[in-house]
Design goal:
The chain has no helices and 30 strands. It has strands at 14-15, 33-42, 44-49, 55-60, 70-75, 81-86, 91-97, 100-105, 110-115, 120-126, 130-136, 142-149, 158-163, 168-174, 179-184, 190-195, 200-205, 210-216, 222-227, 233-238, 248-252, 257-262, 278-280, 283-285, 290-297, 300-307, 312-318, 328-334, 340-347, 350-358.
């Protein structure tokens, strides 16, 4: 049920914008800066950063006439490609946890657990369904794999719980139709799944592995999700086709009510919270008060920062991506040390692009 709208919690979200910073003057050292571009193979699908922030991993599906599926390993300090490792068919997501890399594969409907040092497969977990996204428990020993489809009519959209160490499926929790995104609370006790086709969000108790609530969002088709650092708020991005003014809904995770609706004035691709303090335009912002945005708007790529307390655009920087007319941004990740954001873009049958953005710090 939609509750009365009140001011939402301030957060940091990764999204999309081509807007200019208005009349706000930028000050030295307070703006995001493009750190560089890296050419990656055709049809990139996801990006992940190692726990120590030293390596970036991009996985790709390849393209006709030859599907080449590889993990591109990039040195974060130099943005040099250090390795290109063949991986499974149809990789759709990649996650870094501890000394492991996890790759979700539509080919074979499997989750590959890899050694991040040797880049070899330690074990392959049969999912029995086509995966879409991976999220890790805070301890890194449990993986949550969102499966939105399967070749067998007996399989339904589900959140698949995987024991990473033993390579075993622990449980399957049914979710809604055409699930888009997955987010785990900071304490690992809840999982949230956005169901685009069901116009809902599934809330799951990860300890009991059961659905706590299904939030009916009415005519809102939810996409990207983000949970606040304290776990008290869930942001839900509206992806309704043809909507001129997108909305981000704020859900109180205690009452599971929608308590706010924010119109960012931009098209949001993905969302994530930041948990550091940044100096922006000369003023310090406490953790989780800035909205970082990245996407293609009117063929112009930009990375923008919005203060969610005032809902005003603070500053933006052109991504100046070498690929024009791209399909858009596919995925993004913030390094654990909070110093960089990495955005992957697809280039219509051409090699993709990873753009590194240095964040104000």
């Amino acid at each position: 049920m939609l509750a009365g709208l009140v001011a939402g919690a301030a957060v940091l979200v990764l999204a999309a914008s081509g807007a200019a910073p208005g009349d706000m003057a930028a000050r030295a050292g307070t703006e995001p800066v493009v750190g560089g571009h890296v050419v990656v193979p055709t049809a990139p699908t996801a990006v992940a950063v190692s726990p120590d922030s030293r390596r970036v991993y991009v996985v790709n599906e390849g393209d006709e006439p030859e599907h080449v599926h590889v993990i591109t390993v990039i040195d974060a300090a130099t943005l040099a490609v250090t390795a290109s490792v063949k991986t499974c068919v149809g990789p759709v997501d990649i996650a870094a946890a501890g000394s492991n890399l996890l790759v979700a594969c539509t080919g074979g409907q499997a989750l590959h657990v890899m050694d991040a040092t040797t880049m070899t497969v330690l074990r392959s977990v049969d999912l029995g369904a086509d995966p879409r996204a991976i999220a890790m428990s805070p301890s890194g020993d449990v993986a949550y794999v969102l499966a939105y489809g399967a070749r067998s009519p007996k399989q339904v959209p589900a959140l698949i719980v995987v024991d990473v160490l033993h390579g075993a499926v622990l449980d399957r929790v049914r979710v809604g139709v055409i699930s888009r995104a997955l987010a785990i609370s900071p304490d690992g006790r809840r999982a949230y799944v956005s169901n685009w086709g069901s116009e809902s969000v599934t809330v799951i108790n990860t300890r009991k592995r059961r659905v706590v609530e299904t939030l009916d969002l009415g005519k809102t088709m939810p996409g990207a999700l983000a949970v606040s650092p304290d776990g008290s708020r869930l942001l839900v991005n509206r992806e309704n086709a043809g909507v001129p003014k997108p909305r981000i809904l704020t859900v109180n995770t205690g009452s599971l009510d929608v308590v706010a609706a924010f119109r960012p004035g931009i098209n949001v691709d993905a969302m994530a919270y930041n948990d550091t303090t940044m100096p922006v335009l000369g003023g310090y912002h406490s953790r989780g008060t800035l909205l970082l945005t990245a996407a293609e708007v009117d063929y112009e790529y930009a990375f923008a920062i919005i203060d969610l307390r005032t809902q005003r655009l603070l500053t933006s920087v052109s991504l100046d991506a070498p690929c024009r007319g791209a399909d858009g941004f596919i995925d993004l990740a913030i390094a654990p040390d909070q110093r960089r954001a990495y955005i992957v873009g697809e280039c219509l049958g051409q090699p993709g692009t990873l753009t590194a953005v240095d964040l104000p710090h």
